[in-house]
Amino acid sequence: MDGYNRDVDLKPMDAEQFREHAHKMVDFIADYYKTIENFPVLSQVQPGYLRNMLPDSAPNHPESLDDIFNDVQAKILPGVTHWQSPNYFAYYPSNSSIAGFLGEMLSAGLNIVGFSWITSPAATELEMIVLDWLAKLLKLPDEFLSAGQGGGVIQGTASEAVLVVLLAARDKVLRRLSKNALEKIVVYASDQTHSAVQKACQVLTNYPNLWLLLPNSFVSSLWNLCICQCFNANSFLSRLSLLSVRSLTYDSRNPSGELQVGTTSSTAVDPLLALGKIAKSNGMWFHVDAAYAGSACICPEYRQYIDGVEEADSFNMNAHKWFLTNFDCSALWVKDRTALVQSLSTNPEFLKNKASQANMVVDYKDWQIPLGRRFRSLKLWMVLRLYGIENLQCYIRNHIKLAEHFEGLVAQDPRFEVVTPRIFSLVCFRLLPPRNNEDNDKKLNNDLLEAINSTGKIFISHTVLSGKYILRFAIGAPLTEERHVTAAWKVLQDEASVLLGRL
Amino acid sequence: MDGYNRDVDLKPMDAEQFREHAHKMVDFIADYYKTIENFPVLSQVQPGYLRNMLPDSAPNHPESLDDIFNDVQAKILPGVTHWQSPNYFAYYPSNSSIAGFLGEMLSAGLNIVGFSWITSPAATELEMIVLDWLAKLLKLPDEFLSAGQGGGVIQGTASEAVLVVLLAARDKVLRRLSKNALEKIVVYASDQTHSAVQKACQVLTNYPNLWLLLPNSFVSSLWNLCICQCFNANSFLSRLSLLSVRSLTYDSRNPSGELQVGTTSSTAVDPLLALGKIAKSNGMWFHVDAAYAGSACICPEYRQYIDGVEEADSFNMNAHKWFLTNFDCSALWVKDRTALVQSLSTNPEFLKNKASQANMVVDYKDWQIPLGRRFRSLKLWMVLRLYGIENLQCYIRNHIKLAEHFEGLVAQDPRFEVVTPRIFSLVCFRLLPPRNNEDNDKKLNNDLLEAINSTGKIFISHTVLSGKYILRFAIGAPLTEERHVTAAWKVLQDEASVLLGRL
Questions:
Q1: The pTM is what?
Q2: What is the ipTM of this complex?
Q3: Does a cis peptide bond (omega within 30 degrees of 0) precede residue A328?
Q4: For residue range A125-159, what is the model confidence (pLDDT) as tens digits?
Q5: Mind listing the domains of chain B with CATH numbers?
């Protein structure tokens, strides 16, 4: 037996070549950050732009790293929308940070697949410990800690988090009733809930009408699941929570006009608690999704917005949005981990091992859809340690102050209105149509959006609230400073002037 | 308005600090690779080991990077099972490579969230292009290319791939029949299929009996879905495929004894084709999972094992297993992308944009469970370019030759037997029980497994085939050379001698 290495020039893991190439990549990325403001924030390429710039097939022979860097610069970066730009204000932020990046590097370097405890005990145990840390920081009830019957787990996204809790909730109900009771299950969610809930219902039930949009949809006579989405889309949360409460408490089949309760930021607390109590008294699963704003709740002054989480069966926040942890890192806590495991466990022979069979360990494969999983707790651990709680609180407060600043700028310009009260770092606003042109408001704001984003100077997104087309200005990129917010407002004002001048 | 930066010492994205810290991490990881053979391959820690080594809560103030490196060295690495060790032979490999790592770095550096085309056109377009490259390399039928009605997408894992295709298949059937027909749907899969299929059925249907394990389970009168798992668990594939074919063709409700067809590596081709024809003629969805061995099919001499993929509706291989692309990167191709999109799309206002609304682009959010997604095509692109096709083929061939070498060593020792014919780089074998002790074979091999893995010198895993407890020796770590395989065999022989001596 000889010669099987003879033809192999490839040293895909040579430590010294690794060192040399990875150092080059570090410099490439550092230089990217230094020059990030030179790029249009929203990529300005046309659909299909890349196809003609690249060959039709993979090369037979190796190409150099320099060639690849050149291609990244010339062909890839023009097609990138720069989420890390300080002028990125669209959707929600997707935080990168040095600590988060270092965690990603280490995770990719170890490249373990931590489906079971035994496949890297540190991956499972660090995840349990760090999610306990984060739960304590958020002052979540003790039942969410791993010491009891509950615990935390890192999912890829809030979509996966809501899918697995809905699945656990579904199966819990079906075990109680019968497996044929699927069509009797109702999911309650506000009409502003994230599309992830709709998707989860599509996946889990194939009955799209199980996704109940209050107050517009029917309510079944059987209440089993309750999804309460809060803080995720906008500051409409209190109204939505109240809607849910009222439609549940009063007459859910005939939601009346009185359900139109106005929004105030301060009423956001009670509904969560009230909803939770209703859910509990009706044997529902109560899930609270704070994917975006959960991060703010590490500050004592914002913690009130999840008062009532004590009633929740599960809680979710995305550390990859506004908590400096590179995507993906969606933290999910449950009070009853058995419910997840009952729905998601499989026990094939090839994965059996002593520690799992003896029930001595957590095997996170049974808490999630995928089997394999990365060592994602490293990056969250590094963020918490390299920055520390106080700095992280300052980081959140700074963005919220910047949003306050932006809100103030909008309020000073009578051509604009702030549409919903700002609670966190998202400002919802719009350009008011001129008096003689009021039906034009959607087009006007859509035109403004397109014009703004076409400049490449900033990137913002939109939504529709109560039939109004609204512009969203979400602050949260780590590089954003006051000067960027002020400059962004200037861009908005200038483009508005151009548009209004044309009317 | 002033002062909101005053309290913020935190510069989480300072380019120069990024450079300095990330260079340190590169050196840390390079040094890890250099010394990787010093660690026990399978972590030898006890459950709960980490809890007492770390504080109860996150620190209030920042800690230094050096402190973190010290903790990684002293507390994390002892709890790591070293999948990148050249002495790792368990489960299947999880390849890291310089190219894959560089791709992970760049992806983490850009940290975009590519749910829609507009959120980074390059992320969507590079993924389409690179999956076309890989499809061509695997000689997949043209219908899987993005130019037509099909296309490729990167899923996190094969579990997610099989879930989304089962979902698409389920909904396709239900659209044709009625949404209440759920309990009539049958999923056909071999009894050696991966647990991911069971999990997908649990998620999608809540009828575990929809998971059909031939030849032991019932067959509904309605055939709608056909999952054909090949190459994933072991070389039993041909038998399994034949089982499926026969039970479908003959009498599916009464699989008879004649279904026990023996295995040969060369008969693996026809069943896939035959199965596909049966699936097609019965209106089934036909999915081929080649998560592990798909990589081998880039070599012309191994491509035969997916002959018949022409009949498939979907095909999956994991580039993160044996194709030098860091976890996670599971490539899925479908012939009819509309089927996926119909089941997985949502169209919330806040994600609407011109390009998507005009149907000019692919929005991968509608091809997967999560909304957000990383720029994973970068690493696959870098692997293909930095190594080139010929080197990648050599890489695969080298591992297969090493497995042949190991198989030869086992065959030369009469105390052992090779249980199934080896096709790729996995050898299934066992220690034969002494004549007077034949009932002891499971315990003997389990004891051998535990003894071997406790040495920390190598890590292997096991399975059960036809009631026999089997040891699995899977070659595929990038650092593995002949000397490691030879040494591993020596460890096995020595431990076997000790065990047999005790009997």
A1: 0.91
A2: 0.91
A3: yes
A4: 999 999 999 999 999 999 999 999 999 999 999 99
A5: 113-373 (3.40.640.10)
